[in-house]
């Protein structure tokens, strides 16, 4: 397994993971017709633009293809000047729960630290079946709001890590996570 910075050439692979991850992770939560309508070609166009944003950090995990990705950057909410944000973290279903998500998250956290950030946060659907991932890494809920997806209202929560160095250490030591 290789984890490396993403390039614009990775847009198609990231798009495929993004769509597949949503379709499996959010089945039964997000309306099925919305999930069925997700289009890799449309996501490819979006990712082609996103991967050009220099203020963001983008990582991919690949074996013989891209199997996961993580994206972070400056905080988009007012959580403090030295706070960064994890924007996205997705894995193909067969790669979940094996430590790869921690590694991808750790890469974003480490890069944010190098950029002067001392804390980090990430938004997740309140009913996200994988929110325990953030809790297991020591994230504490610091904010709540609602968002709309496919015409349906969903609660979202922001997990925050005030000790970025501690978060980085937890993502590097798989045995430290229970």
Task: Give a verbal description of the structure.
- With 178 residues, the chain is an alpha+beta fold.
- The protein has helices spanning 11-25, 32-36, 40-50, 100-114, 131-136, 164-172, and strands spanning 2-5, 57-62, 66-74, 83-91, 119-125, 140-149, 152-161.
- The protein has a 7-stranded mixed β-sheet.
- Helix 1 packs across helix 3 and helix 4 runs antiparallel to helix 6.
- The longest helix has 15 residues, at 11-25.
Concise account of the structure shown:
This protein has 178 residues and is an alpha+beta fold. The protein has helices spanning 11-25, 32-36, 40-50, 100-114, 131-136, 164-172; strands at residues 2-5, 57-62, 66-74, 83-91, 119-125, 140-149, 152-161.
Round the mean pLDDT to the nearest integer and report it: 91
Spell the H/E element sequence: EHHHEEEHEHEEH
Order of strands in the sheet with the most strands? 1-2-3-4-5-7-6
CATH topology: Aminopeptidase
Largest sheet, strands/sense/barrel: 7 strands, mixed
Report the strand count.
Answer: 7
Strand content: 25-35%
Shape: globular
Low-confidence stretches: 174-178
Structural class: alpha+beta
Task: Lay out the secondary structure.
Elements: E1 2-5, H1 11-25, H2 32-36, H3 40-50, E2 57-62, E3 66-74, E4 83-91, H4 100-114, E5 119-125, H5 131-136, E6 140-149, E7 152-161, H6 164-172
Parallel strand pairs: 4-5
Antiparallel strand pairs: 1-2, 2-3, 3-4, 5-7, 6-7
